[in-house]
Design brief:
Elements (H helix, E strand, L loop, with lengths): L11 H15 L4 H11 L6 H13 L7 H25 L3 E2 L2 E2 L1 H4 L2 H20 L4 H23 L8 H26 L4 H28 L2 H4 L5 H4 L5 H7 L3 H8 L7 H10 L3 H18 L8 H15 L3
Antiparallel strand pairs: 1-2
Length: 323
């Protein structure tokens, strides 16, 4: 499926309400923080994460109706995701996000860090007001996981001894934890059975990993214009993703280039060619497909509905972006 428009049809109106509410919820006392945050929410994006929360909510509620708490959880999820993107761009020194200027480029690093902190703080405040200790714990874990993932990525730059398991752990912390725990939290708010709650956690985990692996593949196969950031930027910064780790098993010279941190003029372009001429991208593609398939299997606990169908189609969409 090439577009998420029809895919997210069951919650299309809900997502419009979410977008309107996010701008009201920012409510920054300082206009620069408010402008920075609003710039992010206006920058596009598919709203996949809050859409998953809304779809899970409708799929697990007996009458498929949303409560105020479900809507607020979706808004909190998007706040946390957006805050993580701001901090990501500062750490990566990125100038673009979704083909528009990043907050750190538009303002500066100081404002960007504060804007990210502000969004994390706002999300925590609204989270506390959901009056569900279990949901507070789940989403607090997401924020902790994100920080742990950033630290792991920073201290393991250019580490050619990293394993695929370590890569998946880091990908869970940085990306999949939000999908996993927000899906679970949504089912908790619906008073779903323990079996359904656990299955939806694993759905979000597997779907999140599939999305991250695909994103990491696209870093090698897609143009800068489409990516909205320079192609090959992860590799250049020493972030070794699945295609690189698989390629390292077949192209020993790649290890030399990485360990000297691409210090010679043609090192990076040579490394990119070695990866493209290995089976690394194909092996990573298969890994993404495996996680997407497991995510689909995790949905067998749900009754048939338009929302369940959309959740299932998201597993196909995650990998269809490669074609």
């Amino acid at each position: 499926m090439s577009s998420t428009t029809s895919l997210l049809a069951p919650v299309e109106n809900d997502l419009q309400i979410l977008t309107d509410n996010l701008k009201k919820l920012i409510g920054a006392r300082h206009p620069i923080l408010g402008a920075a945050a609003e710039h992010l929410f206006a920058a596009g994006g598919k709203r996949i994460r809050p859409a998953i929360v809304l779809l899970v909510s409708r799929a697990t509620m007996p009458d498929h109706q949303l409560t105020h708490h479900h809507r607020r959880l979706a808004e909190i999820t998007e706040m946390i995701h957006t805050a993580s993107l701001v901090h990501d761009d500062v750490v990566d020194e990125a100038d673009l996000r979704r083909n528009v200027k990043s907050v750190n480029n538009l303002f500066d690093n100081k404002i960007a860090v504060l804007a990210g902190d502000f969004l994390f703080a706002q999300s925590s405040w609204y989270l506390a007001n959901l009056d569900s200790l279990q949901v507070v714990k789940l989403l607090s874990e997401v924020i902790r996981d994100y920080a742990e993932g950033e630290i792991l990525q920073s201290i393991n730059c250019f580490d050619t001894s990293a394993s695929i398991d370590a890569y998946l752990d880091k990908s869970y912390y940085k990306t999949a934890s939000l999908m996993a725990n927000s899906s679970k939290a949504s089912a908790v708010l619906s008073d779903a059975t323990p079996e359904v709650i656990e299955n939806l956690y694993h759905y979000g985990r597997n779907l999140g990993l599939a999305f991250q692996i695909v994103d990491d593949i696209l870093d090698f196969t897609t143009s800068t214009e489409v990516l909205g950031k320079p192609a090959g930027s992860d590799l250049a910064s020493g972030n070794l993703t699945a295609p690189v780790l698989y390629a390292l098993e077949q192209r020993p010279y790649l290890k030399i280039l990485i360990e000297r941190e691409f210090s010679e003029p043609d090192d990076l372009s040579t490394a990119l060619e070695l990866i493209k001429n290995s089976d690394g991208i194909e092996q990573a593609r298969q890994l993404a497909k495996d996680h997407a398939r497991m995510a689909a299997q995790n949905l067998s606990c749900l009754a048939a509905s338009d929302s369940t169908k959309a959740l299932n189609q998201l597993t196909d969409y995650a990998v269809s972006r490669l074609y």
